[in-house]
Design brief:
50% helix, TIM Barrel, eight-stranded parallel β-sheet
């Protein structure tokens, strides 16, 4: 019999479905690549750099949180650097005990600092992920982001770059400034993504209200929602999410760091799970939040009022929510159970 105090079920795969690859770059790698290329940083050792990257308390809103990425993307000076950080993302996932991960990135955002070719970034990131999959045994897939903070036309160009390597991708996401750029602006973009046979997940209901979630579902065809924690404000939306099994990719610590939730005790994740919604736990941007996935299960979840049973439910939900075929999910589960026996 399993220990009821366990917050991670060893018989289930450990899965992260919402992790930004460019928000998961090692501080050591930032310093090393900056030194190699003569890129100026505010500090030249890990501990001195940490306060500039890692949140201590709360950021001054979502855009301040996003602003910390500048130290991570500054070192993406060529495609080899993009390939390296993608590879290290999967290696780090293995160290966390993760069995399956979906890594997402915006090629336009990653290319901007050094004027790289966005399509080349997609190819390099995919190559790094595949190489790390072979070396670690961790199953990893790539989600392409359109960063709405630029503008709709730039997002079309970003989508062009992503679709050029469509076979490298499992899904398309929309991230960035949710308040200024509503989902309705991106109908055509997501029609193109769906026509290409890609799954859809959209950042919504994080800093925006329930209407943001409704629009992501109705206008963009989202099968999953990134965050979605404001959904509780609309009982009809809660009913819809439950009936249609639309998953919420919840990131507890990140929500606190951004300031959309005051503290762990105020986080709505417990209520969402108690309503039997399809909710799982994720890291979002581990380098900026200074966490890993085990932290979200073993520290953040209990502080947010989740019992071991609820965290194990979130873990099981992650497998249901994963952008994998039923056969792939079965293989992942059987492999995990085989490790235990």
């Amino acid at each position: 019999m399993m220990n009821p105090d366990l917050f991670i079920d060893p018989n289930l795969p450990l899965i992260d479905l919402h992790r930004h690859l460019d928000g998961s770059i090692r501080l050591e790698t930032i310093i090393e690549l900056a030194e190699q290329q003569g890129i100026e940083l505010p500090a030249c050792d890990v501990e001195s750099l940490r306060p500039y990257v890692v949140i201590d308390g709360k950021a001054d809103g979502l855009m301040d949180f996003i602003g910390r990425f500048r130290y991570l993307t500054a070192i993406l000076h060529d495609l080899d650097a993009c390939r390296r950080v993608a590879y290290e993302n999967v290696v780090d996932a293995q160290r966390e005990g993760i069995d399956y991960i979906e890594l997402r990135c915006s090629p336009w955002f990653m290319s901007e600092a050094h004027d790289l070719d966005p399509a080349g970034v997609v190819d390099a990131v995919a190559d790094g992920i595949k190489a790390a999959e072979r070396d670690t045994g961790v199953r990893a897939q790539m989600i392409g982001i359109m960063s709405r903070t630029y503008d709709t036309e730039t997002c079309h160009r970003e989508l062009d770059a992503l679709l050029q390597y469509r076979d490298h991708l499992v899904a398309i996401d929309l991230a960035g400034d949710e308040l200024r750029f509503s989902p309705e602006l991106f109908r055509d973009h997501f029609r193109r993504a769906r026509d290409a046979g890609l799954e859809i997940t959209v950042h919504a209901g994080e800093v925006g209200g329930p209407q943001s979630v409704w629009s992501a579902i109705r206008e963009l065809g989202a099968a999953r929602i990134g965050h979605g924690i404001q959904s509780l404000e609309d009982p009809a939306l809660v009913d819809y999410l439950g009936e249609h099994r639309i998953g919420l990719e919840v990131c507890i610590t990140s929500n606190i760091h951004i300031g959309v939730v005051d503290d762990y005790a105020d986080h709505p994740v417990r209520v969402l799970l108690e309503k039997d919604l399809l909710v799982n736990l994720n890291t979002d941007d581990p380098a900026i939040s200074g966490i890993d996935l085990r932290h979200e299960y073993e520290v953040a979840a209990p502080k947010a009022g989740l019992s071991p049973a609820l965290t194990r439910q979130a873990q099981a939900n992650a497998l249901e929510m994963a952008f994998l075929s039923d056969d792939e999910k079965r293989i992942l589960l059987e492999k995990k159970k085989g490790e235990i026996t």
